[in-house]
Amino acid sequence: MDGFLLLAFLFLVAGVVAVPIASRLGLGSVLGYLIAGIAISPLLQQLHVDVVSIQHFAEFGVVMMLFLVGLELEPRMLWSMRDKLLGLGGLQVTITAAAIMGIAMLLGQPWSIALAVGLVLSLSSTAIVLQTLNEKGLMKCDGGQSSFSVLLFQDIAVIPMLAFIPLLALPELAEVTVAAGDHAGEGTHGTLSLVDRLAGWQRALVTAGAIGLVVVGGTYLTRPIFRFIAVARLRELFTAFALLLVIGIALLMTVVGLSPALGTFLAGVVLANSEYRHELESNIEPFKGLLLGVFFITVGAAIQFDLLVSNLGAVIGMTAGLIGLKMAVLYALSRVFGISGADRWLFTLSLAQAGEFGFVLLSLTVASSVIPVALAEQLLLVVTLSMLLTPLLFIIYDKLIAPRFAKTQTREADEIDETGSVIIAGHGRYGGIINRILLSAGYKTVVLDYRSEQLEMLRAFGVKVYFGDAMRPDLLHAAGIEEAKMLVIAIDERESATELVRYVTENYPHVHVVVRAIDRHHVYELWNAGARDIIRETFDSSLRAGRSALEALGVHPYDAERQVRGFVINDREQMFEMASLYDPEIPAHENPEYVEGTKRYLERYEEAMRGNSAAFGSRLDRGWVPPTLDDLEAEQGSGGTD
Amino acid sequence: MARLIVYYAHPGHKYSQVNRLMARAAAAVDGITFVDLNHDYPRMDIDVDVEQQRLLDHDVILFQFPLFWYSTPSIIKEWQDLVLEHGFAYGSGGDQLAGKRMMLAVTTAGPEDAYTHRGYQHYPLRTFLTPLEQTARLCKMMFPAPYVLYGALKAPKTGLAEAHVAGYRQLLEAIRDDRFDFDAADTMDIVQVDNLPITMEA
Questions:
Q1: Does any CB of chain B come closer than 8 Å to the CB of residue A460?
Q2: In this complex, how many residue pairs, one in chain A and one in chain B, have their CB atoms less than 8 Å apart?
Q3: A4 at the B interface (CB within 8 A)?
């Protein structure tokens, strides 16, 4: 227990200290974690910590990340990406692997070792690249999307590689084989396996069954389970279920010999249309972030500096060669696939490293006697070093490439701005109408509501509503408050609405807030909290009711309309006047200034009514009052009669 | 029997001295259609389909209004902008109103001598009404001389208002009964209560 606490303390301190510094220096969080890892590595060695096994555990962060990526991708979008996925991804892996294999053979390695090295180094780092792209908001641009396609293909390609690499075993190495370690994140040779002893067709059947289970389960089972959990109204149960879901799928995939990352990605895609999408997202997000952080720290901590120093020239040479080669291949592919401008460079620079799957494959190659241990250790350093350099490549992109293409970049930013969506908190009688109006005008809305029964009904009518409490910052984040144009607060809880207004106007000043107010005093509270677009919930319907009453009493409809308009203007005027006097801390009737102000206003109002002055409602009709005969005289005087 | 529709517009009708009485008289005439635009559309959301059908169902379309700033009250302009669509009232295929008549019943605050080149309004009343006249022409409608009351603010005192209202009723009934002599009216600049071109027999 003490050991665990000490270790957790060490990792957390390293992260909390290094990441803000790195971010402030514009290096990005990934490099911060890596540096933190390097910094604490002597301490970890002193404590005899098994960094590699922590790394395998933390690789689960990648699995979670792919689940989250899947949640953002609807099946339709995935299908529309298929050309890039297979073409760009497939060619990147094949060409890079072949080129590395060729170079390795030129350097005198046997073909089997050369091929294994090629496969290992052809992969890039999903963890670093996706994390950085997300952090920099580059996921949506063409370069980001292309990078993602390639990474996704690589994640899928790992599976056949894991099966294929043991076949390259060299007999002379078999004698020195070390027992393979199991990998929490990846690997078909874990302790749990259903499919090892099955024939090929049975294996295929089990695999298809597992994928079918994820798709069918995700589509039909999550909803009743969520409904079941919602009854308890306990926040942590949702977190528990979200974790259970991801871990369960990862386990299932491991058992049938598939990539857990791929399985959870698939589950994410299946759930992308679900009303619980944002709830799942906000629950998994922190775990993903922490695990990836630990993963990056272990990458930094695992660098064997003695080995690096003794092979400095070779390792640096290989790393530079690897990055150069990968960039050349990526650049060529981007030309072929028509990725242009800043996007081409983003694509080229972002994927030039080797990745965490390299660690997994390397340990497999050693375990199955494909690559000699000494070479594997050097390659491990190359992979690590190339990952360590990736944030620097991103900095090159930020500082040198992006400014050169600044013109095209800003145009793209505008486009994103146009599609920026509206978040509606609360889909009751109030929010529902707002949603229908916005949708019919062609705006994208994200509706949040936490009444599960209501959601079922709305979904049945085809309204897209997500489960979740808008009061939670993480859920607002998952719903995209950063990119949102507007937040409509349509909830009927007074304090919650005020609090939400305060939070959003302080943290996201660019988001326009439209808020539902319960009554006049609530309007003042909301105004104090920073809202400027405040709509009283029953005001407009009361006005219409008043107008209807006037019409039914025989008032000419146009006069009734103008009467009501006059009332609105007076009422608004009074509200503005009284807002400055209202103090949310004191009840209105105990606030002497407020009471005084109201009295003053009413006096003025009555006076105006009695004296028929131009103030208040009567001024509305001024334009329609005919001129007097005196006016007529003056009119004639002013016109010349030449 | 000519099918007659009267469109009345006066947003300040409760302050009106002549138009309100005219409207009341028009509403009381049997066999014609009377529409108070401000009543039907208090928020100006004019129902184009209903209005176009009304136009199709009538032969004479008469607008009754006080002259506001040398033009109609704004709701009549809104009505024109929306109802007189191309393809319906004008433009290609827009001949649905061809052969109908568009007539005006106008009151002015200024006296008759103001609406001359030497008067303080500088132009004759018909000059101010040319946009409406041309609107009718573009819609292939005829534009008979308007029924006019000058000096409407003074009229109640001189008894002219009463006469004008009575004349208005006769005018509407005559149009309804085909006793209004449109040919004679075409030779006139404006029609007033003392020169109504009305015959006894249709």
A1: no
A2: 58
A3: no
Q: What average pLDDT does the segment A66-86 reach? A: 81
SS3 A517: strand
B123-139 pLDDT tens trace: 999 999 999 999 999 99
φ and ψ at residue B29, rounded to 5 degrees:
-75, 125
Distance from CA of B198 to the nearest CA of A (A): 32
Angstrom distance (rounded) from CA A41 to CA A304: 9
Q: What are phi and psi of A187, to 5 degrees?
A: 115, 135
Q: How far apart are CA A243 and CA A291, in angstroms?
A: 13
DSSP summary character for residue A397: I
Instruction: State whether B42 and A557 contact (CB < 8 Å).
Output: yes
A106 pLDDT tier (thresholds 50, 70, 90): very high
What residues of chain B, 163 to 192, have a C-beta less than 8 Å from chain A? none
Q: What pLDDT does residue A412 have?
A: 38
Least reliable range by pLDDT among A435-444, A451-460, A603-612, A629-638: A603-612
Rounded Cα–Cα distance for residues B29 and A371 (Å): 107
What does the alpha-carbon distance between residue A421 and residue A476 come to, in Å, rounded to a whole number? 13
Q: Are A552 and A544 in contact (CB under 8 A)?
A: no
Element (H, E) at B60: strand B60-66
Decide: residue A342, CB within 10 A, 0-12 exposed, 13-18 middle, 19+ buried: buried
How far apart CA B201 and CA A278 sit, in angstroms, is 81
Which domains, and CATH codes, for chain B? 4-195 (3.40.50.360)
Distance between CA atoms of A268 and A421, rounded to whole angstroms?
Answer: 21
* Mode of pairing for the β-strands spanning B60-66 and B4-8: parallel
Between CA B168 and CA B163 the distance in angstroms is: 8
Q: How far is CA B161 from CA A241, A332, B164, B166, B189, in A?
A: 84, 91, 5, 9, 21
**Residue type for A377, please?**
E
Residue A392 structure tokens: 């620097």
* Closest of A377, A361, A304, A379 to residue A107, by C-alpha: A379
A contacts of B43 (beta carbons < 8 Å)? 561
**Structural domains of chain A in order of their starting residue, each with its CATH number:** 51-411 (1.20.1530.20), 420-624 (3.40.50.720)
Supply the ipTM of this predicted assembly: 0.85
Record: contact A624-B122, CB cut-off 8 A: no
Enumerate residues 6+ apart whose C-beta is below 8 A from A245. A222, A267, A280
Asked if B119 reaches chain A (Cβ–Cβ under 8 Å), the answer is yes
pLDDT band at residue A458 under the 50/70/90 scheme: confident
Segments of chain B with pLDDT less than 70: 202
Residue A100 near residue A117 (C-beta atoms within 8 A):
yes
The C-alpha atoms of residue A164 and residue A327 are separated, in whole angstroms, by 26
